[in-house]
Design brief:
The longest helix has 17 residues, at 22-38. Helix 10 links the parallel strand 17 (317-320) and strand 18. The protein has helices at residues 9-20, 22-38, 56-66, 108-115, 134-138, 180-191, 229-240, 281-295, 309-313, 331-342, 352-358, 372-380, 392-395, 459-464, 498-507; strands at residues 46-49, 72-74, 77-83, 88-94, 99-102, 142-145, 152-153, 172-175, 196-199, 203-205, 208-210, 215-218, 245-247, 263-266, 271-275, 300-303, 317-320, 346-350, 404-410, 423-428, 441-447, 452-454, 468-476, 479-484. It is an alpha+beta fold and 510 residues long. Strands 15, 16, 17, 18, 19, 20, 21, 22, 23 and 24 form a ten-stranded mixed beta sheet that branches. 28% of the residues lie in helices and 22% in strands. Helix 6 packs antiparallel against helix 7 (229-240). The protein folds into three domains: 34-153, no CATH class; 167-266, 2-Layer Sandwich (Alpha-Beta Plaits); 271-368 and 378-507, 3-Layer(aba) Sandwich (Rossmann fold), CATH 3.40.50.
């Protein structure tokens, strides 16, 4: 309950002037939205965003609804537009489940800001991110059109029924692994004690194609649930907003049967998140919030000073968020962690935690900077060191990366990249790149040449940001170390990275 509201003097002055100019204020307010509707600015007049059978587009539509952005479903038609993913103009076909956002609407300025390919930053000396184009944030392809789209519909095409087997008669169930809804369903099933598997390879059964990563639940493996399996599945999938497929047999028409070694059991992991001295409160908070409010899977917070052999025995997955870890500079602590991983543990390291592991002989190495060009520049201009103090921030921009978007190529045959196409858009906040893992590991996400797609990057840094590792998995005995060099959960805003993080927790090392 609010007992009182305190208004400061500047606040009172604003209210007083607003009251005196009330008619003009209302007029200008209306004029702003009328102009936005009648003469929208920006590169494109409309945007068509493609449906891809994942839940990414559904989450984007909810964001539009929360912000008052008008959208409609498209009808089948052929258009020419700028492909965000290929970065070129193409002829494409719009399908009924795709959506269109026309710019001639009251919130057209917000539409332009959120959907423009390259953010317009008036001054690159910014403290915050310089790239936020939603098609890259959500990982959904979009096309920018120079004309409005008038062939629209307010209703979506109903999905056809997938299978004809009743749930009670099924011997197994399949859930597609293609988004956060899939991950929520998996987390809930594991919490309820359901034995779950995943398909390492694509398969076909009952005329339906399933991709790698598909979640499988067999009836024979869950007899301990005393006949409640169907009830649990219905409850879990309904809560997650996702469908499931009852299957008549564990034998498939194409691919590996469910009893094969290519169909892996998913153990419910005991997850611990490191907190405390040296750990970024923002980085830790993102992970904690993700588990607590979105994934809704139990996570244990462990202070960095309490990480030892005893606490590690109670942990299957140890998450090291961004931070500056004193323990990673301690040789004995590194040996304890390595022994735990070799015995079957899994570390998920994010951002600067990856950099610290790279300096302590964990099998990953940071790419060294090439100083040759700098030396040449110094020889050309002997007065290069004479800089003005007032320009110190701007002088640093040549080596700065204030959060820009890069396209990483993915090996989506690896469990860490299940549910993704052959690429992933990452928000790069620094210049950290790592050498490719040559032995005992997997280069799952790498940057090659000309990978930047949006945002500001300093001229000197741009040349260095190529041919390096961002996402990898190191094999160590019976365990794994997952390297995520960038923040895949950035402010809970980077939607496209959330499934990647779930893969790291549940899929890798099973």
């Amino acid at each position: 309950m609010i007992d009182c509201i305190i208004i400061t003097q500047p606040g009172m002055s604003t209210l007083e002037v607003s009251a005196l100019q009330s008619s003009k204020l209302v007029k200008e307010f209306k004029s702003y939205y009328d102009k936005a509707r009648s003469t929208p600015g920006g590169e494109f007049k409309s945007y068509i965003i493609k449906y891809d059978e994942s839940d990414r587009l559904d989450r984007l539509k909810k964001l539009f609804d929360r912000n008052g952005i008008e959208w409609s479903y498209t009808n089948s038609a052929t258009y020419t537009g700028w492909n965000y993913f290929s970065n070129k103009s193409e002829v494409f076909k719009a399908e009924p489940n795709d959506i269109v956002v026309n710019a001639n609407q009251p919130n057209s300025n917000l539409v332009r800001v959120l959907l423009e390919r390259n953010s317009k930053v008036t001054d690159s000396a910014t403290y915050d991110i310089t790239a936020w184009s939603l098609p890259y944030v959500y990982g959904v392809n979009a096309f920018g059109l120079t004309n409005y789209v008038t062939q629209v519909s307010k209703t979506v095409t109903a999905a056809t029924a997938a299978v004809g087997v009743s749930s009670q008669a099924a011997s197994a169930y399949a859930i597609r692994w293609n988004g956060m809804n899939s991950a929520k369903a998996l987390a809930s099933l594991l919490k309820k004690g359901v034995k779950v598997r995943y398909a390492e390879q694509p398969f076909t059964t009952q005329g339906i194609n399933f991709e790698k990563g598909t979640i499988l639940v067999t009836r024979t493996s869950n007899q301990s649930l005393n006949g409640k399996l169907d009830e649990i599945l219905q409850e879990v999938t309904a809560a997650a907003g996702i469908g499931y497929y009852p299957l008549s047999s564990s034998f498939v028409d194409k691919g590996y049967d469910f009893g094969s070694g290519r169909v892996r059991i998913i153990q419910a992991p005991r997850v611990s998140l490191v907190t405390g001295d040296g750990v970024s409160s923002l980085g830790m908070g993102e992970v904690w919030h993700f588990f607590d409010t979105q994934l809704q899977y139990p996570i244990h917070l462990i202070n960095v000073n309490d990480v030892n052999k005893n606490t590690l025995r109670q942990t299957d997955v140890l998450i090291l968020p961004d931070g500056n870890y004193r323990m990673l500079s301690d040789k004995s602590m590194n040996e304890i962690l390595k022994e735990w991983v070799s015995n079957g543990g899994k570390i998920i390291a994010l951002e600067n935690a990856v950099a610290q592991l790279s300096r302590n002989d964990w099998g990953i190495k940071m790419k060294s900077d090439d100083k040759k060009d700098d030396k040449k520049d110094d020889k050309k201009d002997e007065y290069a060191a004479l800089r003005k103090y007032e320009n110190r921030e701007r002088d640093m921009l040549v080596n700065a990366n204030p959060r820009s978007i890069y396209k990483a190529e993915l090996d989506n045959s690896h469990p860490l990249a299940f549910g993704y196409p052959g690429f992933y858009y990452t928000l790069k906040q620094d210049d950290n790149l790592y050498e490719f893992i040559k032995e005992g590991g997997w280069n799952v996400g790498v940057i090659k040449k000309e990978a930047q797609v949006s945002g500001f990057v300093g001229t000197k840094l741009k040349e260095k940001m190529k041919d390096g590792l961002l996402i990898g998995v190191q094999d160590m005995g019976r365990g794994k170390v997952v390297y995520l060099a960038d923040d895949v959960l950035f402010r809970s805003f980077w939607e496209n990275g959330k499934l990647l993080f779930c893969n790291a927790v549940f899929m890798v090392g099973q």
